[in-house]
Specification:
The chain is built from twelve helices and 13 strands. The protein is an alpha/beta fold.
Amino acid sequence: MPLGLEEASVRQAPFASAGLEIEELTVRFGGLLALNDVSLSVQPREIVGLIGPNGAGKTTLFNAVSGFVRPTRGTIRWRGSALRNHRPHDLGRLGIARTLQGVGLCRGLSALENVVCGAQPRLHADLLSAIGGLWRSSREERQIMDRAESLLGELGVAEWAHRLPDALPYGVQKRVALARALISEPQLLLLDEPMSGLSSAEMDDLSGRIRAQRNHISVLVVEHRMDFVMATCDRIVVFNFGEVVMSGTPDEVIASPEVTEAYLGEAVHTFDTPPSSPAESPAEDARERPGARAEIRPDPPIPGEGLPRAQG
Ligand SMILES: Nc1ncnc2c1ncn2[C@@H]1O[C@H](COP(=O)(O)OP(=O)(O)OP(=O)(O)O)[C@@H](O)[C@H]1O
Ligand SMILES: [Mg+2]
């Protein structure tokens, strides 16, 4: 059954049904083939990492799942129903939430208000019942506010609730963005580089909090920090030039020569072969965890959010 604006009842389907299934997805931007015949899945309660070099198509995949770009070809199925013609504002009702590459908080709103904004899809869904009485509507508003406060508390940033984003340390902003995604109580969480800019300690902490969600959430996470991916994900899918190079367990992926060559390349250092120059110290994170590797790369651009439609 195709799923568009009118068919958001899929959110109520039992969690035991299939998770996210992407089949032969192709996205073309004019002459650029951003995704070519990509197939992957995220099962219920699974945390899948999506890795690959800059420009490999990772954010484009999120944009296609989120309804920001229309695929040229292929199928996106969520909980057994095909997603076609859906738009970003349908995600809340579909039970899908996303954090953006970068942070993407509203600068004029406090941290708490930003989190409350994440609940908007649910507010809209309940609009008719809210019209039933001011009392009920203000009670719902209070519940959302309470939930936003408690999420900030669970993520360890409650004391920043009434500050504007510009006044928050970067790591706090990332947690606020995560809280904004979690408040809609999604069944699928799409995280685009949630660890960029975070310290090792912050990353370990957030990794634990993300894993703690997996009893009721499927997670697809794009991340360049290999130590995070290795520690957090059940399975990893590797992209290169818009195609899936391989997928497997973290151990399988890290041991794959094709992956090392295609994705990690020369900018990778293991425990056994630490970087010779101190200027390459970003690999420090990896050295804290045996077997882990880290990529060294410049700060990425922040492409891909709110993009125009792909061309068919
Ligand atoms: N709206 C668009 N119009 C044209 N080209 C686009 C658009 N969005 C993405 N691209 C291009 O598609 C390719 C894949 O970009 P994408 O942002 O998905 O890469 P990525 O894997 O997320 O990279 P990074 O790790 O740097 O975030 C890139 O060549 C990018 O320039
Ligand atoms: Mg990206």
